[in-house]
Amino acid sequence: MKSRFHAPELATGITPENIFFNRRRFMGAAAAALAVPKTLLAATPPSNGKLVPALQRPDVYPTTRNPGYVLPESFRQELTPRETAASHNNFYEFLPGRGGPVWEHVDAFEAEPWKIEVKGLCHKPQTFDLDALFAIPHEERLYHFRCVERWAMNVPWSGFPLSKLLAKVEPKSNAKFVRFESVNRPDQMPGIGASSWYPWPYHEALRIDEAMNELALVVTGVYGQPLLKQHGAPVRIIAPWKYGYKSPKSIVKIELTSKQPRTFWQVQEHEFGFLSNINPFIPHPRWSQAESYWLDTQERFDTPIFNGYEKYVADLYPDEPRTPQKPLRVGQVAR
User: CA 146 to CA 120: how far, in whole Å?
Assistant: First the structure.
């Protein structure tokens, strides 16, 4: 989750993200973050439309909503407007250094053909193309999404449980973690070349018990249509009880490992660690996580532990802090 100099962040006093994600390069990165968007805007033609899906799958979409997954009761129940959700995104491969109108920079990106290689500690490593992924029964779920920067939205994602994909490769007993890697195409993703200090490609990971949890989704659609490019087309992951950066976009590799992988933001000395569960009791060094705000209205509200999904995931984290913790100091890392 990444943002810089965007109106909602200014309204809530959020510190530019490159300060805390890339402390060692702050002076250079701050200057680049200011200059890069102008460069990109000059070099990249406007998109034909922010709501145009990256591909067409009329045989799959719209999917049927699963009524077993509803928005947590503590939140408002209205969906975030589709255009709002498509207008502000964090996707540094296209717009580095800040969140914002990613859709203006995605025209050159090609979402098909596409393949995801699943390898590592499994009995049946496989490569899945889009036909194979779309052949897995899809459903729609309403999820509450929360960024580490505190903005939030209610979104209808479509896809299937990550556990179904992992079951196809039959993880070995010593597989303890699942590592995800996003596509790395500097020729189609202008933010990569504009921010060479980041450890591309983007990579994230979950524990295998987290990946097998029923909430973890392989997502191919949003708002009843295939994913938009700015949402991570054609395939991304959603883990709604974690901060948004734990849900990688445009993934091309999944690897099962025995040792905990290093993640993109851990390499950048991000103050939140591998788990990165949404927890109002663990404050960021520069702001409290106890409060969230809606992306569309800016209205503030209390942040519940695990983003409101406690009944699904609390058993995974018996030692999750339930009382206010001291703010982190520079160099410290939370869970």
Answer: 30
